[in-house]
Design goal:
By secondary structure, the chain is mostly beta strands. The protein is about 15% helix and about 50% strand. The chain has one helix at about 1-25; strands at about 30-40, 50-60, 70-80, 105-120, 125-140, 155-165, 170-180, 195-205.
Length: about 210
C-alpha cells in the first residue's frame, strides 16, 4: 500500500510540475529571428522600388490570454537605398564620397524595438501583429553614433504583419511604414520628407 501511495504521489507531482512548466512556457516565450529586409526610402533624390537587406535579433512573447499577447523585440536591420541623378539638388554628394552620384547605394542600419500586440486568428499558432516600432540609426563601427549626417538619428514606424508559430520554428511577414521624416534638415535642403518603408520576411527559433 505504501509503495502504491508513493508511486501515485510521484505521478501527481510529476504531472503537476509538467503542467506548471508548460503553462509557464506558453505564458512567456523567448526566441531568435532573422531574415530579409525589402526596404526603400520615399523622398526626392531616391529611386522608387524596394532593395534587399537583412535583419537579425531576438524577441520575448507574453501570452496574456489564449487569444491575445504582447511581443517585444530587439532587431538590427540593414537596408540599402539608391539615389537618383537629382540627389545633388537635395544633398551635396561629396558628403557621401561620390561626386558623380551614379546610383549611389546608401546603407541605413537601424537598431529597432518593435512593441507588438498579438491577436490569434482562430488558432494560437497564427497571430496578427500590430504596433509601433522605435528605431535608432547606427553605423557599422559604433552603435551609438549616426551613420550619416544627412539622416536623423531616430525613426518611429507602424508595424502590421503575421506570425506563424510552428513547433520550435516561427515564420513572420510584416510591413513597416515610417511616420518620421528621417531627413536632417540642418544638412539637407528642405524639399519634402524622407520616410522609410520595409517588408520584412523572417524565420526563427522559439525557445
Amino acid at each position: 500500500m505504501k509503495k502504491l501511495f508513493f508511486a501515485a504521489a510521484v505521478l501527481c507531482v510529476t504531472a503537476f510540475s509538467s503542467t506548471a512548466v508548460n503553462a509557464q512556457t506558453k505564458f512567456l516565450r523567448f526566441g531568435l529571428k532573422g531574415g530579409a529586409n525589402l526596404g526603400k526610402l520615399d523622398g526626392k533624390g531616391y529611386k522608387d522600388g524596394f532593395n534587399l537587406g537583412y535583419h537579425l535579433g531576438g524577441f520575448a512573447q507574453v501570452n496574456l490570454t489564449k487569444g491575445f499577447g504582447v511581443q517585444g523585440e530587439l532587431i538590427f536591420s540593414s537596408t540599402k537605398t539608391k539615389t537618383t541623378s537629382d540627389f545633388s539638388e537635395v544633398y551635396n554628394p561629396d558628403n557621401l564620397n561620390d561626386p558623380e552620384n551614379n546610383n549611389k547605394k546608401i546603407s541605413l542600419n537601424y537598431l529597432s524595438i518593435p512593441i507588438l500586440a498579438n491577436f490569434s486568428l482562430g488558432s494560437p499558432r497564427i497571430k496578427l501583429q500590430v504596433g509601433p516600432q522605435f528605431s535608432a540609426l547606427v553605423s557599422d563601427k559604433n552603435v551609438f553614433k549616426g551613420a550619416n549626417d544627412a539622416f536623423n538619428g531616430g525613426d518611429i514606424s507602424g508595424v502590421a504583419g503575421l506570425w506563424i508559430q510552428l513547433p520550435i520554428v516561427n515564420i513572420s511577414a510584416r510591413y513597416i511604414l515610417g511616420f518620421t521624416d528621417v531627413k536632417n534638415v540642418s544638412d539637407v535642403t528642405n524639399s519634402g520628407n524622407w520616410k522609410n518603408q520595409a517588408i520584412q520576411l523572417g524565420v526563427g527559433v522559439t525557445l
